[in-house]
Inverse folding.
C-alpha cells in the first residue's frame, strides 16, 4: 500500500471517540444552550445532556413561577391588573413603583380598603431583592450552558452532573458555606438601608401618613429643603460643624488620656499596676447609659450636687444650669466632652497597654545607650509604634463618636434649646437630630435625607483615613 493510499483512510473518526463531543449533540452552536437557559432555566443544560444540572437550575425557575402564581389571583378572568391579580413579584414591583393607587377613607365602620404605601414599598423591596438573588442563579445557568457547549465544540471532554457538582463543592466550598450568611445580610442589612434611601425621595411625613394617605415619589425635593431653605440649612450647617468638632475632640481626648494612663502604668516606678489598671477600667465596665444618667443628675442645674458645691465653695454666686442655659451652650458641650472622656479613655488605655507590652525592651536599651531621654524615647519609639497599631481604631472611634447617640441624648437630650435651630438643640449631633426628626416629629422623609448625609460623610471620612493608614495598606 502506497503512502497516498494510506493518507486517504478516515483516520479522524476514531480520534474523536475519547472526547466524545457527539454525545452532547454534535454541531450545536455555543449560544443556543445559553439562549435556551435564558428562556427556561436549565433547558440549555438539558440540550447539553446534563439532566442533573438542568433539574437544579429548573428548580429555582419553577419555584419562582409557582410562588408567583400561588400568591396571585391569575384565574379571575380577563380584567388583569397588577394590584388585584399580581402575585408576590408582580404586585411587589407594582407597589414599589406606584406606592399605591387607591387611598383609604375613614367611615363610620373604620378605614375602607385601600393601599398602604409603606407596606407596598417594603414588600416591593423584598420582591426586588429576591429577584436579584434569583438573577444570580439565572446568569449562572446561562453562562454555564453556553461555556460548556463552547468547550465541547472546541474538543473538550464531557462532564456528568455529579462530577460538576463535586467540582463546585470542592472548589467553592467557602462561598457555598458563606452564601446563607450573604442572604441574611441582604434581607437584614441591605433591605433597611435601601428602605431608608427610598423614603428620602417621598413625602412620607406627619402631614401625609399611611394608611389613610398615600405616599408619593417627590424626587430631590427633600434634599432641596435641607440645603436651600434658610432655616433648615442653618440648622444642618450648625449641627454638622458641632458634630465634626465633637467627633474630633472626643476621639483625641480619649486617646490622649488612655495613652497617658497606659504609659504611666507601664512605668516600673508604679507599684501595684494591676490594681490601678482594674480601677481605671471600671468606667468602661459600667454601662454607658447608666453613667450618662448619673452625670446628668450630678450636673442638674436645680438639684445637682456639682452646682451646689461650687456655690458652697464660693466659686460661683448662683447655681449653674449646665444643660438648660441657652446663653451658654458651651457649658453643656464641655460637660458632654468630659463625660465622654470618662467613658472612653479606659478602652484606649487597655489597647495601648497591650501594644506597649509587645515593644521589645531592646529598643529602649539601644535608645538609652545613644543618650535618649524618656521624652525622646516616647517620641521616637513608643508613639510611632502605638500610632501605627491603633490608627485604624482611631478612625473607627471617630466614626463611633460621630454617631455617639447615647452620651448626648441621655446626658443633655440635645439641650440647651436653640431658637435658630429647627427641632434641635445646641448639643444635638446629626444622629440625635435624626432621632428627633423621625420619632418625635415624624418627619420621616427629612430624617431619611439626614441618614443619607450622615452615611456619605462618615463613609467618605472613613475611606480616606483608612486608605492613608499604613496598617491598612499592608493588609
Amino acid at each position: 500500500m502506497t503512502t497516498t493510499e494510506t493518507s486517504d483512510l478516515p483516520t479522524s473518526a476514531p480520534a474523536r471517540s475519547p472526547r466524545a463531543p457527539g454525545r452532547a449533540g454534535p454541531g450545536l452552536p455555543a449560544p443556543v444552550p445559553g439562549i435556551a437557559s435564558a428562556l427556561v432555566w436549565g433547558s440549555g443544560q438539558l440540550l447539553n445532556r446534563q439532566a442533573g444540572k438542568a433539574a437544579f437550575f429548573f428548580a429555582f425557575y419553577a419555584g419562582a413561577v409557582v410562588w408567583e402564581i400561588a400568591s396571585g389571583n391569575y384565574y379571575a378572568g380577563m380584567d388583569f391588573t397588577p394590584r388585584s391579580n399580581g402575585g408576590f413579584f408582580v404586585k411587589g414591583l407594582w407597589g414599589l413603583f406606584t406606592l399605591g393607587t387607591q387611598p383609604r377613607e375613614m367611615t363610620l365602620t373604620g378605614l375602607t380598603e385601600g393601599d398602604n404605601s409603606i407596606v407596598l414599598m417594603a414588600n416591593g423591596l423584598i420582591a426586588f431583592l429576591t429577584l436579584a438573588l434569583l438573577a444570580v442563579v439565572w446568569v449562572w445557568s446561562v453562562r454555564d450552558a453556553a461555556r460548556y457547549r463552547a468547550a465541547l465544540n472546541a474538543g473538550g471532554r464531557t462532564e456528568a452532573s455529579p462530577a460538576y457538582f463535586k467540582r463546585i463543592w470542592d472548589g467553592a466550598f467557602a462561598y457555598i458555606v458563606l452564601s446563607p450568611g450573604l442572604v441574611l445580610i441582604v434581607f437584614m442589612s441591605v433591605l433597611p438601608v435601601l428602605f431608608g434611601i427610598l423614603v428620602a425621595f417621598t413625602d412620607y411625613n406627619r402631614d401625609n401618613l399611611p394608611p389613610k394617605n398615600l405616599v408619593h415619589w417627590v424626587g430631590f425635593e427633600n434634599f432641596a429643603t435641607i440645603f436651600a431653605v434658610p432655616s433648615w440649612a442653618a440648622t444642618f450647617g450648625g449641627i454638622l460643624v458641632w458634630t465634626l468638632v465633637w467627633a474630633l475632640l472626643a476621639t483625641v481626648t480619649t486617646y490622649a488620656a488612655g495613652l497617658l494612663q497606659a504609659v504611666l502604668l507601664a512605668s516600673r516606678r508604679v507599684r501595684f499596676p494591676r490594681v490601678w489598671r482594674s480601677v481605671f477600667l471600671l468606667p468602661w465596665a459600667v454601662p454607658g447609659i447608666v453613667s450618662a444618667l448619673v452625670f446628668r443628675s450630678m450636673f442638674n442645674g436645680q438639684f445637682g450636687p456639682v452646682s451646689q458645691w461650687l456655690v458652697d465653695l464660693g466659686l460661683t454666686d448662683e447655681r449653674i444650669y449646665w444643660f438648660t442655659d441657652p446663653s451658654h451652650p458651651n457649658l453643656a458641650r464641655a460637660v458632654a466632652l468630659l463625660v465622654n472622656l470618662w467613658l472612653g479613655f479606659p478602652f484606649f488605655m487597655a489597647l495601648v497597654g497591650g501594644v506597649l507590652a509587645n515593644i521589645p525592651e531592646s529598643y529602649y536599651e539601644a535608645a538609652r545607650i545613644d543618650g535618649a531621654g524618656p521624652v525622646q524615647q516616647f517620641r521616637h519609639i513608643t508613639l510611632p509604634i502605638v500610632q501605627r497599631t491603633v490608627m485604624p481604631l482611631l478612625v473607627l472611634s471617630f466614626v463611633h463618636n460621630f454617631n455617639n447617640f447615647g452620651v448626648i441624648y441621655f446626658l443633655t437630650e440635645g439641650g440647651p434649646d436653640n431658637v435658630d435651630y429647627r427641632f434641635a438643640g445646641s448639643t444635638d449631633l446629626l444622629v440625635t437630630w435624626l432621632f428627633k426628626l423621625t420619632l418625635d416629629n415624624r418627619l420621616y422623609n427629612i430624617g431619611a435625607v439626614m441618614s443619607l448625609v450622615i452615611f456619605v460623610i462618615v463613609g467618605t471620612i472613613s475611606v480616606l483615613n483608612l486608605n492613608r493608614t499604613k496598617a491598612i495598606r499592608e493588609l
Q: What stands out?
A: The first strand starts at residue 106 and ends at 107. DSSP finds 23 helices and two strands in the chain.
